[in-house]
Amino acid sequence: MNIVRSYLCPVNNILDLKPVLHGPSKNFFITTHHKPDGDAMGSSLGLYHYLKKLGHQPLVVTPNDYGSFLYFLPEEKSVVQYETNPDTALEILKNCDYIFCLDFNRLSRINELGDAVRAAQQPKIMIDHHLEPENFAQFQLHDTKAAATAELVFRMMVEMGDLHLMDSEIGTCLYTGIMTDTGSFRFASTSAEIHRTIAFLKESGVDHVKIHEAINDSWSFRRLQFMGYILSNKLKYLPEKKTAYITITAQELLDYEVQTGDTEGLVNYALSIEGVKFAALIVDRTVMVKLSFRSKGKIPANEFSSNNFQGGGHLNAAGGQSSDSLEVTEKRFLEALEQFYPQILNDEKA
Ligand code: 5GP
Ligand code: MN
Question: What's the CA-to-centroid distance between 255 and ligand 2, angstroms?
């Protein structure tokens, strides 16, 4: 299979790093965004295993915790969380030679850790696929057409001529990132290239059944009951606007002992109603109200989010926040939708 090919890569000077990667052992600090998802953890740990194989000493530091369905990732236990272990995290940062920033492109996305990373003197390397990057890194592999940051880590290995180092540990992490960010290979971002990459990972020993089971079949009974409650009681359907949305109160999060990661994917249920083109999940996280948006076709969820909720993201998957109460945020959402829904209906005709 011809896996080495020229990729369309808008901002890419990652090859300048080749002498470092192929040189003497160095310490690498790898970090990723707030509340890391499957791609954030998969790309970071995939890079971790790749750097280890090159003889380096990497460590992954996350701003905070992530869903327990990601605990199966190889060497997940080595990950340091800044929120619970700030001193260790800052020590690792102080002692590193290079800083990798994965799956985010604005230092504000890693909360307080972002200030420390910004102040750090070591060279920074950004690998990311989100829109509108901040220019903070000397080395970049940035492509908004990439389906996942894990795809970019794979591409980096290709460009470095290191694909022969691929093994089941690196592959399991990269597969997880690609699988979760493509909605199990169903979103429009799933290119033929992605399928070729996945074929290569499979040939490198990745057990895809184990990964899908770990991600999809590891729900606690309580989480499933929470989902049932939400779908029965909290899903609002506005057929005339081809929109559905869910609000969750802080009390409901407490009542169902909701853990980090438990609300992931809920917004997709709202989008799965026949005819629905735009969906939102609005959650009272106490410190702020967090909003997630999903859309179909060319409906710009990211524009809706940046115009109304200080957010952003991709065309079909975006997020934002509000410092108002849940009730006021819901009201603001409905007001914004009043302006936005002609665009939703219009996309239908296109
Ligand atoms: P999710 O709804 O899964 O939290 O996020 C979906 C997408 O929106 C992700 O690509 C994420 O990077 C982006 N996103 C989520 N929250 C925010 C936010 O507060 N600000 C910005 N700029 N992007 C966000
Ligand atoms: Mn991603």
Answer: 31
